[in-house]
Amino acid sequence: MADVHEDIESVILSEEDIEAIVKRMGGEISRDYDGKNPLIIAVLRGAFVFTADLMRAITVPCAVDFMAVSSYGDGIKSSGVVRIVKDLDTKIEGRHVIIAEDILDSGLTLSYLIDLLQARKPASVHVATFAVKDIKGKVPAIDPRYVGTHVPDAFIVGYGLDYAERYRNLPYVGVLKSEVYAG
Ligand code: 5GP
Ligand code: MG
Ligand code: MG
């Protein structure tokens, strides 16, 4: 692998790992949505890298739109407040919707989003999340249909995931050194 960024403690998913995960998810979605022309909703900003790869791994017709919500701000802890920063441009009534998310932690962000989208009467709403964070004794508020992988309970960056808007461009996923956000 190419040089690892100095702020990364350890790489947990290499580019090759990521490629295999996304290919597999694209295959699952292609099988399930044959003839359904699903609308993939990328939850900005974190999911845009994953969504771009996922779309290219889907072999049936599909469309994409974007929604921006803010739940973490610049910090590393969930604020519990979800704010819609950008809404969809597409009408979803009667459409099959797949929400593409970067990482599922508490699931509160997605739970809020799903309720909001359900009110617009889509034909279906399912979630494809690249990663689920494994937290001992905690169950996420939602149950995603498509899960890429499970990651440990640490603050991770790369492949679209940021800390203070940095590191989204790393092509791998890694644990951020704690001294970067401490003090
Ligand atoms: P939830 O509402 O599921 O607790 O939070 C999900 C959102 O928090 C994710 O979409 C992501 O934006 C952010 N998040 C959760 N865990 C991490 C993490 O380990 N690293 C980064 N960069 N963002 C995270
Ligand atoms: Mg996100
Ligand atoms: Mg973030």
* C-alpha-based Rg, rounded: 16 Å
Oligomer: single chain
Structural class: alpha/beta
Strand order, largest beta sheet: 4-3-2-5-6-7
Question: Quick check: average pLDDT?
Answer: 92
Biggest β-sheet: count, sense, barrel?
A: 6 strands, mixed
Q: What ranges have pLDDT less than 50 throughout 5 or more consecutive residues?
A: none
**What would CATH call the class?**
Alpha Beta
Helix content: 10-25%
Q: What is the number of independent domains? A: 1
Quote the distance from N terminus to C terminus: 31 Å
**Strand residue content:** 25-35%
Shape: globular
Q: Tally of extended strands?
A: 9
Number of helices: 4
Order of helices and strands: EHEHEEEHEEEEH
From the 3D coordinates, which CATH architecture would you assign?
3-Layer(aba) Sandwich
CATH topology-level fold name: Rossmann fold
User: Can you list the ligands bound to this structure?
Assistant: guanosine-5'-monophosphate, magnesium ion
